[in-house]
């Protein structure tokens, strides 16, 4: 039973039963320690189990921007291949976090190239038709802010302290924003959250039928039946982590009672299944140890 659960979890997160697809094994290669390294805030946050809840939260928040929602609706194959889209996002996150610099830059260049192809129009909050590209500065900023806030907030709720504190994580992860084209990423948690509020205060965000459809899909994704009970708990945890105004816009009620401690129990169980270090972190440590031996 334990092995089956572990296999299901690794298949969902990495696309393979053992958590070591070729791109993870390649993290052991490279010529430098990467942008962050052991002991960094980014390694601590992205190596934690709260990332599973953060991913849910980030998708919910990102959907509130009509431009980001249009890109998902018009171009994403999330319904046909939801796990493929998930593992693609995870691959970029893990590669930038644990890979060497050249690998992180190549992965980010692929993301930028994909963004250039994602174009169309959307209706803004006032009902006006607006042309967009996924590479537009405001959309890149929105996605980066929603992502950074989600992973920071969930780590603060369910994990241990961050080396250097929240500002260290925001400052470090600004590098990832720059790699995908953001020219002025926030460098402090206060600035990051102020910019997020700015989108709301400017009246940019909206929740229409497309958003509510995506929320329903995120609430009930096509996972294997054995994983659904744990996922439902984590979904409630994601709801609990949201600001009340975000829950209201998304049409989400109050989280279930005890959502936060129940989610913590699920995350601790996942940690016991997967071990203290991910296969990605182990590969990165192998690379760093090899480089140290060469000096």
Keywords:
single chain, 295 residues, two-stranded antiparallel ribbon, 65% helix, globular, Oxygenase MpaB family protein, MPAB/Lcp_cat_dom
Can you describe this structure in just a few lines?
This protein has one domain. Helix content is 65%, strand content 3%.
Describe the structure.
The chain has about 300 residues and is mainly α. The chain has one domain. The protein contains 15 helices and two strands. It has helices spanning about 1-15, 20-25, 40-45, 50-60, 65-75, 80-100, 100-115, 135-160, 165-180, 190-200, 210-220, 230-240, 245-250, 260-275, 280-295, and strands spanning about 120-125, 130-135. It has a two-stranded antiparallel sheet. A hairpin with a 5-residue loop joins strand 1 and strand 2 (about 130-135). The chain is globular, with a radius of gyration of 19 Å. It starts with a helix and ends with a helix. The mean pLDDT is about 90. This is Oxygenase MpaB family protein. InterPro entries: MPAB/Lcp_cat_dom.
Outline the fold blueprint.
Layout: H1 2-14, H2 22-25, H3 41-46, H4 51-62, H5 66-75, H6 82-98, H7 101-117, E1 119-123, E2 129-133, H8 137-158, H9 166-179, H10 189-201, H11 209-219, H12 228-241, H13 244-250, H14 259-274, H15 279-294
Antiparallel strand pairs: 1-2
Helix pairs in contact: 4-8, 4-12, 6-7, 8-9, 8-10, 12-14
Organism: Microbacterium lacus
InterPro entries: MPAB/Lcp_cat_dom
Protein name: Oxygenase MpaB family protein
């Amino acid at each position: 039973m334990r092995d089956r659960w572990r296999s299901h979890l690794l298949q969902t997160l990495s696309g393979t039963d053992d958590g070591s697809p070729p791109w993870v094994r390649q993290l052991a290669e490279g010529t430098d320690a990467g942008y962050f390294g052991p002991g960094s805030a980014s390694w601590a946050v992205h190596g934690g189990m709260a990332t599973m809840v953060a991913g849910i939260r980030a998708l919910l928040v990102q959907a509130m921007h009509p431009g980001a929602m249009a890109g998902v609706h018009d171009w994403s194959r999330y319904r046909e291949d939801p796990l493929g889209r998930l593992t693609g996002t995870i691959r970029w996150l893990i590669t930038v976090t644990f890979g060497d610099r050249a690998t992180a830059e190549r992965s980010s260049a692929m993301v930028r190239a994909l963004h250039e192809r994602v174009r169309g129009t959307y209706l803004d909050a006032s009902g006006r038709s607006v042309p967009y590209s996924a590479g537009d500065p405001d959309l890149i900023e929105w996605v980066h802010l929603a992502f950074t806030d989600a992973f920071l907030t969930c780590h603060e709720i369910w994990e241990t302290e961050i080396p250097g504190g929240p500002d260290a994580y925001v400052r470090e992860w600004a590098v990832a924003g720059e790699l995908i084209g953001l020219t002025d990423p926030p460098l402090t948690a206060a600035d990051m959250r102020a910019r997020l509020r700015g989108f709301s205060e400017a009246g940019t965000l909206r929740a229409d039928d497309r958003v509510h459809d995506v929320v329903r899909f995120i609430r009930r994704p096509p996972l294997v039946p054995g994983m659904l009970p744990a996922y439902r708990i984590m979904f409630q945890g994601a709801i609990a982590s949201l600001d009340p105004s975000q829950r209201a816009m998304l049409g989400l009620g109050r989280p279930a009672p005890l959502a936060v401690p129940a989610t913590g129990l699920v995350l601790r169980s996942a940690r016991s299944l997967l071990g203290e270090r991910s296969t990605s972190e182990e590969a990165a440590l192998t690379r760093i140890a090899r480089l140290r031996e060469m000096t």
